[in-house]
Amino acid sequence: MPWARERSDFTLLFEAMVMAMAKEMPVRALAGLVGEEDKRIWRIVHHYVDQAVEAQNLAETEQVGIDDTSFRRGQDYVTVFCDLDPSERRAVFVTEGRDAQTVEQFAGFLEAHGGDPDRITEVSQDMSAAYLAGVRDHLDNAQVTFDRYHVKQKLSEAIDTVRRAEAKQHKELLKNTRYLWLKRPDNLTEKQLDWLDELLQQPLETVRAYEQALKFDDFYELEDPAGAEEYLRRWVSEAKASELEPLVAFAEMLEAHWSGVIRWHQSRVSNGLLEGLNSLIQAAKRRARGYRSARNYKAMIYLVAGKLQPGPAVT
Questions:
Q1: Which backbone phi and psi does 144 adopt, to 5 degrees?
Q2: What is the pLDDT at residue 70?
Q3: Cα separation of 92 and 109, whole Å?
Q4: 212 burial type by CB count under 10 A (0-12 exposed, 13-18 middle, 19+ buried)
Q5: Domain residue spans in the chain?
């Protein structure tokens, strides 16, 4: 019938409404609103999302971001591959797991949709050894940049480790100060800045770690790649000389991943886009209070972050 697709119990107009609303509200709530079982609504979503995903043309894909996100209590993960080209900036492939096989699956998906794994020249990822191995094995011409946000996240974790250890001796002084050390000064309120200024006058190991972190930020602000690499070498030496164990461990991690860290000054690619998409994804997950299956979660990622136009053509 012209007003319904084959083997569907719904009109095209109803399905178009479902697809528009599924991007904005939980499927379970949507099902209740229209008086249907949520599994029947999911069937509609999967049909049109799968159709749109298969219709993608990835012939021009050259820069890729890789990141993972959990869909159930931090135990189950999917990996998201994103086209980082400014004209695209969208999730193009989502698969279960976060190991080297996900990259192999992406390479196969790329070939099946007009792309070429050899055409991928830049990959932005975290320091996952599994992703790195997958890129080396399946994206032969790709240069890897370790995402600056993940690198700085590791430094933040080191600072927080110093703070937590020192808080055992200075409980009152460091109580409720965690975010003072982890946020950039320009993201603090006036009251927080005053509090931080007072703490910076104290002879604390946390203060020394924080000051090193501020210096590290300058690495990404430098324009000259050679100068930036030399700056980072000096920073690593200072971090090791601090004898703060978490900071020393972070410096050693930088040395072990050196080429991918300094690569940022040539590629200027990062997963900032993926972090933004992840915010959309996590918001959708919170609305649904988790997804019962990876398939549902993947469909929602495509729906909110894929810039696809899934749905029936209604005239």
A1: -100, 130
A2: 81
A3: 10
A4: buried
A5: 63-147+269-304, 148-259
Number of C-beta neighbours around residue 282 at 10 A:
12
Which CATH entry fits the domain spanning 63-147+269-304: 3.40.50.300, 3.30.2130.10, 3.10.450.50, 3.30.420.10?
3.30.420.10
pLDDT at 314: 59
Residues of the chain with pLDDT under 50: none
pLDDT for position 6: 74
DSSP states of the chain: -TTS-TT-SS-HHHHHHHHHHHTTS-HHHHHHHHTS-HHHHHHHHHHHHHHHHHT---TT--EEEEEEEEEETTTEEEEEEEE--TTT-EEEEEEE-SSHHHHHHHHHHHHHTT--GGG--EEEE-S-HHHHHHHHHH-TTPEEEE-HHHHHHHHHHHHHHHHHHHTTTSHHHHTT-HHHHHS-GGGS-HHHHHHHHHHTTS--HHHHHHHHHHHHHGGGG-S-HHHHHHHHHHHHHHHHHTT-HHHHHHHHHHHHTHHHHHTHHHH---THHHHHHHHHHHHHHHHHTS-SSHHHHHHHHHHHHS----S----
The answer to whether 214 touches 118, Cβ cutoff 8 Å, is: no
142: phi then psi, degrees, rounded to nearest 5 = -85, 135
Sign of the alpha-carbon dihedral angle for 147, 148, 154, 157: negative
Residues with Cβ within 8 Å of 116's Cβ and at least 6 positions away in sequence, in order, are: 59, 110
Q: Is the separation of the CB atoms in 144 and 263 below 8 Å?
A: yes
- The answer to whether the beta carbons of residues 262 and 228 sit under 8 Å apart is yes
pLDDT at residue 282 in the model: 72
Query: Would you call 94 exposed, middle or buried from its count of C-beta atoms within 10 A (0-12, 13-18, 19+)?
Result: buried
Would the pTM of this model clear 0.70, i.e. be above it? yes
